[in-house]
What does this fold into?
Amino acid sequence: MEETVSSRILEEKIYVAVGRNVWKNTSNLLWALQNSEGNKICILHIHQPSPMIPVLGTKFEASTADDVSVRAYRGKETAKTDKILQEYLSICLRNGVQAEKLCFEMDSVEKGIVEMIHQHRIRKFVMGAAADKHYSMKMEDLKSRKAKFVCKQASATCQIQFTCKGNLIHTREARMDEVRALSVLLSEFQRLVLPLTSTDPIQSLNVENERGSSLDTSSCQSADTLSQPGTSLNLAQEEQNDASSNVFPCSGMMNFLINSTKLWQKLTIQNHEHCE
It folds into this structure.
């Protein structure tokens, strides 16, 4: 079992965020390669399509330019981005690492990173904390707006290491305890709610039949009990209790809602504490 777990950890990929300027991102990539500890490397780039399209020496908004010009310019952008990513892959090869590349198109780089972490279930991620020119020996905080956004918004299951000029500045650890607790809450929610929202027609028919038979029985009993003095009040209270049990079919539901609210509050507070 231990060997299986350790081999799984070694096979886990480290995703490294890179920009269009290779020279500015090389130091952070080299840090990731030197600290990969046998893990595979994947270069992650968020491509921002240009909002302006050059046509005959003049720039037009992409929404107003003709389709032919837009497609031609987008093709050039894609080819240029591919060339940039190949440069990063060459740097990895020169350092003895055969890396992969992942490119995602989005208007916002930071939102694109958060989305990629979510979609690909990324567990280890490296990105810049600030531009290299802002680095100092005492630097401990995130300076980049993008870094702060990712630190707060990215999935709690992902460990994010923020670097600057080839130095580790800050690590946002993955909070697995809270994630496991949330998983337990979700399982409890399914146990409590799914039986009540079943759409199986056979099950629904059986439920209706049971309700019908119970109604027939209760109506016969009510006719007998109403003829006896002092029983009408008890019958009304029982009916009220039955109605309340239909509204709140399971007392555990309230506990689930309370616990889940507390957990999300805890996650939110920890996100802000780790990223301020």
Observations:
- The two ends are 39 Å apart (CA to CA).
- Strands lie at 13-17, 40-47, 52-55, 58-61, 100-105, 124-128, 159-164, 167-172.
- The chain has nine helices and eight strands.
- Confidence is low (pLDDT under 50) at residues 1-10, 217-233, 242-248.
